[in-house]
Amino acid sequence: MEDRIDPKDVGELKISTEAIAVIASTAALQVDGVSALATGRIEDFTERVGMKNPGKGLRLDIKNNTVSLDVHIIVKFGFRIPDVARAIQKAIKNAIEEMTDMHVLAVNVLVQDVDFSGVQDLQKAAIEP
Predict the structure, then answer these.
(1) 7 occurs within a structural domain
(2) What is the pLDDT of residue 74?
C-alpha cells in the first residue's frame, strides 16, 4: 500500500526565478524562426565579463504562483513574425505550466531585430564560382 504524503507536512517547494527563466528561454529557442533571445547593454556586459545570465532576453514577474514575462527575440529572416510570436507564447506557457504547476498569465513577445545571416550566406554562395 502506498502512503500519500501531503507536501505541507514535509516542507515547502520554491522554484527560483532563474529556473523559470531557463525553462522559458529554452522553450523560446526551440521555436522555428527564433534566431536568439535579444539582450540589452547590461546583459551584453555581464556576458563579456564571463557571468552566466539565465534570464538573457527575459523579464519575469512572479506573484502568487502566477508568472508574467516579456521575451525579447531576434527572428530569422523569412519567417512570419506573428506566427513565430504565437508559437513562442504557446511553447513558453506550456513548458512553465507543465514543469512547475504555476499559472502563466501573459507571455509578451518583443521582436528586437531580424537575423539576415542565413540570407547573406546564400548570397555569398550564389556569387562565388
Answers:
(1) no
(2) 96
Residue 9 confidence (pLDDT): 72
For residue 44, the model assigns a pLDDT of: 46
* Integer CA distances (angstroms), 27 to 37, 50, 88, 90, 96, in order: 11, 24, 7, 9, 9
**CB-count burial class (<10 Å; 0-12, 13-18, 19+) for 28:** buried
Q: Which candidate, 89, 97, 112, places its Cα nearest to that of 40? A: 112
Which CATH number fits the domain that encloses residue 38?
A: 3.30.70.1350
Neighbouring C-alpha atoms within 13 Å toward the C-beta of 105: 11
